[in-house]
């Protein structure tokens, strides 16, 4: 015998509807609990108090600031009487400074102009009369003789510094000096790889003899001259 299920006894019938109704009821309760407000009963203040009542009180007025009175108007200027100029004014006559042909012209003595001793330097390569090294007075080519005598002077007085030899220092020292208008040597400048080599080159140039100064247009001038001194270890 088969058991038949009564459709009225179905437990799951309309379950979704009941679920929605229950969910709605729960949400309503939660919302009402969140929006619930409670106020404390307090009689500490007077409800009848009004702000407008305070504004009716009289406010004492501050004293007025006393400003200084304005300065009095300036006095009216005195009436200036106009007096006619009765005095005669002499006219100023400007005499001409131009001389006429009838006037004698005074002769002016010639004024001697002193020559200014200009400090001129002329390079050795372009000077008209080169400085004369002692011993080159009779040479036909004094410029070549000057350079040859300079090389002889360097070889004769050359001495390699001991400290430079120990340190193994060698190189070329460029020397520039000026033959002054009296034939002496001055304004010596050097540039080299080591101070000891520069010091030795200075000693050699200081031993140069006094020379006959160079001339440009017949006048003695300063003549700069440059020469290299090579220091080389054997």
Automatic annotation (TrEMBL):
A Gene Ontology BP annotation from the UniProt entry: transmembrane transport
UniProt keywords, alphabetically: Cell inner membrane, Cell membrane, Membrane, Protein transport, Transmembrane, Transmembrane helix, Transport
InterPro entries referenced in this protein's UniProt entry, alphabetically: TonB, TonB-dependent_transducer, TonB/TolA_C, TonB_C
GO MF term list: energy transducer activity
Record Pfam families: TonB_C (PF03544)
TonB C-terminal domain residues: 145-234
Cellular compartments annotated: Cell inner membrane
Manganese among keywords: no
Keyword RNA-binding: no
One Gene Ontology term, aspect cellular component: outer membrane-bounded periplasmic space
Membrane topology of the entry: Single-pass membrane protein
TM annotation in the entry: 16-34
Assigned protein family: Belongs to the TonB family.
Annotated protein name in UniProt: TonB C-terminal domain-containing protein
The organism of origin for this protein: Flagellimonas maritima
């Amino acid at each position: 015998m088969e058991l038949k299920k009564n459709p009225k006894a179905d437990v799951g019938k309309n379950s979704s509807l009941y679920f929605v109704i229950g969910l709605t009821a729960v949400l309503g309760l939660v919302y009402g609990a969140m929006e619930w407000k409670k106020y404390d009963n307090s009689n500490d203040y007077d409800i009848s108090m009004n702000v407008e009542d305070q504004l009716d009180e009289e406010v004492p007025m501050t004293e007025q600031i006393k400003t200084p009175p304005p300065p009095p108007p300036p006095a009216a200027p005195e009436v200036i009487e106009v007096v006619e100029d009765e005095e005669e004014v002499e006219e100023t006559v400007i005499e001409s400074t131009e001389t006429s042909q009838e006037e004698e012209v005074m002769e002016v003595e010639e004024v001697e102009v002193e020559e200014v001793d200009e400090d001129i330097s002329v390079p050795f390569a372009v000077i008209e009369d080169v400085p004369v090294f002692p011993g080159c007075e009779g040479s036909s080519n004094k410029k070549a003789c000057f350079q040859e005598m300079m090389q002889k002077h360097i070889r004769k007085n050359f001495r390699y510094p001991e400290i430079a030899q120990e340190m193994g220092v060698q190189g070329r020292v460029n020397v520039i000096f000026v033959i002054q208008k009296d034939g002496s040597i001055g304004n010596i400048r050097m540039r080299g790889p080591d101070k000891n080599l520069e010091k030795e080159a200075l000693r050699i140039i200081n031993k140069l003899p006094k020379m006959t100064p160079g001339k440009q247009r017949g006048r003695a001038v300063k003549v700069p001259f440059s020469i290299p001194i090579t220091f080389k270890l054997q």
